[in-house]
Amino acid sequence: MVWTGTWVAERLGVELIGDEELPALLGLALRRNPKRAHLLVSSVLGKHVPQRPSVVYGSGLDLGRRVRALLGDEEAARAVVLGYAETATALGHAVADGLGLAPYLHSTRRPVAGVARAGGFEESHSHATSHLLLPEDPKLLAGDGPLVLVDDEFSTGNTVLNTVRALHERYPRDRYVVVALVDMRSAADLGRLDAFAAEIGARVDLVAGAAGTVRLPDGVLEKGQALVAAQERAHASAGTASEADATVATGAATGADATVATGAVTVPDASLAAGAATGADASVAAEGAPGASLRAGAATAPAALPRTPRATPVRIDLGWPEGLPDGGRHGFTPDHRTGLEAALPAMADRIAQALRAPADPAALADPAAPADPERPTPVPPHASPRVLVLGFEELMYAPLRLGTALEEAGHDVRYSTTTRSPVLAVDDPGYAIRTRLVFPAHDDPADGPGERYAYNVAGAGFDAVVAVVDSTADTPALHAPDGLLARLAAHIPRVVLVVVPSYTPAVPSHVPTVPSYTPTVSEAPERSSMLPEPLRGPAFSSYAPEEVGWLLQDLSDVELEAPTEEREEAIQSGGAHYAESLPVEYQPSERYQELFHTALESSATRIARAVGTVTETVLAERPGRRPVLVSLARAGTPVGVLMRRWALARHDLDLPHYAVSIVRGRGIDANALRWLAAHHDPADVVFVDGWTGKGAITRELADALKEFEATEGITGFDPEIAVLADPGSCVRVHGTREDFLIPSACLNSTVSGLISRTVLRSDLVGPDDFHGAKFYRELAGADVSADFLDAVAARFDEVAETVDTDVKELLATDRTPTWEGWAAVERISEEYGIHDVNLVKPGVGETTRVLLRRVPWKILAKRGADADLAHVRLLAEQRGVPVEEVDGLPYSCVGLIHPQYTRGATGADGKAVVSQ
């Protein structure tokens, strides 16, 4: 028998090493996913490969019994079992059943109105990464008994570590047990679990059905992506127009009207494999086998191309017990399990009756005649008809138990479920995913509409399918011409629909519930994260919505401001981080506002030239690509908007632009990076900032991206920052290295779309949240954000020719950073007895920030730089700060923060106390 990993192994050099039973348990397929090339396809999980329900359920039961033996009955009775969505929801249930004494909860990617979140975590390599924990009983996870975590495979350990870390902070306990069908850790990962256990001071055991590892050659991700692309190109050249229709494997068709496609769309005159068809018009599709001819010796017949289902789906009333949860999304107790066991025989009998129902005589007499909707389509008169019980994404346990009950009643049953994971299908015995059905999501998912899949269903010779969904997913999209039921009916003679009522805990009366039917959703590009969409103006910021999307959360209603002196004391004493509170927004005097407008008028041309130069440099270094601008909020955001405007005005390029938070000492917002990686190629991302001072943020970004890549496995982000001005010689891509006045540095939110500096505080920003910021709507009367942008953009035409010359010269010169500014800062820190480079802020922009937000000690001004320092001198005068004229500065000025502050009114918890 051919191993179902052979096709991938031969082409990518992937090796499966370990216990001798591994090849029988696991096959290989290729993901259509930028984060991981291969997919281990379990033959006993019941997700991608239809399997006998007793085998799937028994695998979990055996693991649960092993856990009970490990813990002992007393500890088992105190345990809680947690399974992972979507693939391990039924496996976790089965482990809990084997344990016998413990309640069960599985993570979910479906938010439920009115149900409070008890936690969440990230599964970095997954197609859809974000998990929620929504127990009905908030105390379910709060006990101190063992926590048993169940997943289908234990590979790197990242998912488990993310889960335990997130939960241990809230609900610490002494013992964890990790359960998996297979332990596939590499040698490098073997010690991580023990090290982590020692770090948190808890015992962590591992129980697995089999062990081994996958040996991946260098460059496997790129090779896998190239192989997927080649297969898809082959399908396209063979006539595949879309993936709306099912692919059907050799031996697929059993009825006269079986449809055929090469790849996904029906193709006339497809050749059939030997033994494939039972009727003259049967036809077969094979994604992965380009062209219409599939196998030598195939019987060739013209393919009928029906556009309507061959079977009329039949809905039955299952008689699901009232109040019984449909699964573990909100918790499933041993008492619930007892209730389900008692009800299973009767529910299985209702399904069996539907499968035995009499046929529609008209349909039997004339296959072209429409079926009577009141009568089911008959199951062919086989001695033992093959039945598939098909679950729905996270709804795996209820269909599995219905399948076991049917099997126990003597039926020939297989079980699998639909999934949101995109996998390449290849019609080859040595490949684990032979066929796929493609259909739109039908449960109005929180992460948006997109494709869903059923693998190895079409072409598997099933006489009937029992499609089991919950009531939330029983929508018009399910019943649509391109929906799941129609896809199934095109390939399987009988389709029975079973709807299990979605269990929703009682919610307060003011919280709206989800209706049983929702508007049909249209197909759209899939999204792989449950993180929210970017905030946009005018709801958040005064910028136009197309100018920038803010990957932030809105904290406008939270009081975060503290007096400047109190913040400084707390920051310098270590009592609080600067990002845990906000300074009181500086309201400029009339004289200062006049200085801003004068400076804008005089410097707009110079700024436009720098904007053009940095934008053209970015475009020149990425020929043929469409950069994604990601500005570092908030100083970088006006620059990002201007760069976008330049690209649109000069090249008719509409560049995406987002703003993200980066915090010195805390790194860049990892959730924002996840969102970007889910929606764009990381290689296209260009980070943008206003200017460099000593280069601290440049180094911060490089370190943060290195850590992100190591922990998340997401590669491709370039740590290089493109800036308007680089007086410290810290970056390669810049508009100028002169230290001149950028008017957007003169003000705070009123020149930055009315958005505050970003906030990162643990009681406001959870592990699954974007960093926060405030929208100062009340300052709209003083907002000059649009004035700044429009004044600079108005000069684009007059500087275009100069920019072309500047860019040619820049591209021909060595732009390697010298870090001259950092060296100057270190020297100044020592000469003035500060001994902390973080208190030395070089450049016009950073000096202005010192005067607006911090407690300034003195200002060092480069002799002869008066033209750019009028506003600095005015602010220094208003705050009583001395300005010292010096020679030899690489900057126009340097701001020194007062180095002698002690702990103030802002405490270690980051809560600001505003002086009365």
Characterization of this structure:
- With 916 residues, the chain is of the alpha/beta class.
- The strands form eleven sheets. The protein has a six-stranded mixed β-sheet with strand order 1-10-9-8-4-5, sandwiched between helices.
- The protein starts with 5 loop residues before the first helix and ends in a 19-residue tail after the last strand.
- Residues 122-129, 240-309, 359-382, 507-529 and 902-916 have low confidence and may be disordered.
- Keywords: Glycosyltransferase, Transferase.
- This is Phosphoribosyltransferase.
- Residues 359-380 are annotated as: Disordered.
- Residues 541-792 form the Cysteine protease StiP N-terminal domain.
Number of strands: 35
Largest sheet: 6 strands, mixed
Radius of gyration using CA atoms only: 31 Å
As laid out across the biggest beta sheet, the strand order is 1-10-9-8-4-5
* Uncertain parts: 122-129, 240-309, 359-382, 507-529, 902-916
Instruction: Give the overall shape, derived from the CA principal axes.
Output: elongated
Q: Report strand %.
A: 15-25%
Number of helical segments with 4 or more residues: 23
Helix content: 25-40%
Distance between the termini: 81 Å
Give the class from helix and strand content and strand pairing: alpha/beta
Mean pLDDT across the residues is 79
Task: Looking at this protein, list some descriptive labels.
916 residues, alpha/beta, six-stranded mixed beta sheet, six-stranded parallel beta sheet, 30% helix, elongated
Compact summary:
The radius of gyration is 31 Å and the shape is elongated. It is of the alpha/beta class and 916 residues long. The protein has a six-stranded mixed sheet, with helices on both faces. Strands 20-25-24-28-29-30 form a six-stranded parallel sheet. A five-stranded parallel sheet has the order 13-19-18-14-15.
